[in-house]
Amino acid sequence: MKLSVYNTIIEIMHKHNSRDCLPLIVKEFPDFSISTIGSIYAQDYQKKMRKTHHIHYNPMKMEMYYEQYLEGVQNKERHILLKISNGIELSPALLARMILERYLSSTKYGGENPPRSYVTKLMKDNTLINDPMLASEIHECLVSDDHYGPHVDNIKQSIGHEHECKLNRILDSLNLAYIGEDQMRTRGFDKTPDVKLEVPFSVDGHVINWIESKASFGDEYSHRGYLKDQFWSYWNRFGPGMVIYWFGFIEELDTDREKGIILSDKFPENIVRMNPIMK
């Protein structure tokens, strides 16, 4: 996807400010799947939350939201947290976690912040929350949030695993020898791509020693982070390799081919196998 097309898609999303616009974008840009457009929307939404989260996550704001919640409970309202999150344009799951932290602070930890691990545990299993009303409200936030929360994390992990299996099936069908992350870790590697080829192949003259599978769209923000935290580490350990962004990527980001990292949106068909001459 060209950067200009990506920017146009983002503009349409910002104009509508709702996932309802996704089918309209697919209709206008039929070359891209709903999965690709959905991934772009999710990434843009998450970037917005990262930029604005600090505005809400401060004692004064948290106290105000908690008071609004308590007032709603007193008035026997329903969907209280969803209404608050919609009004302040904050992810329902993020608001639910803030309210849960505030609740635990006042009821269990004497005004101190509760341990993050304990909050995460209750977010994953709402039945452990002593207040049935709060448990119900938090559950509603989690099932209504398409971008944050343990349910979304599970879905992302499942989709990621599905595409890793897809990559493995392709390699198996081509009779290419490889090892996976678990095998690499047993050999002492701490930074591991999804696949390390036992026998490299080449694509367009570039040698491929490893492949990383990303079940997402490759935008500038995510790709820059992956380069820093993952890809260059793989390059240092295993040499040149390839990243597959299964939902597409911004073409202008594919600038490190000569350095040893190439990008693709599928497994390439034009691979050249190593063919040693037997003597």
Automatic annotation (TrEMBL):
GO CC terms of this entry: cytoplasm; nucleus
Subcellular localization, as worded in the UniProt entry: Cytoplasm; Nucleus
Superkingdom of the source species: Eukaryota
Transmembrane segments: none
Key words, A-Z: Cytoplasm, Nucleus
InterPro entries: CDIN1
Protein name as it appears in the record: CDAN1-interacting nuclease 1
Source species of the chain: Magallana gigas
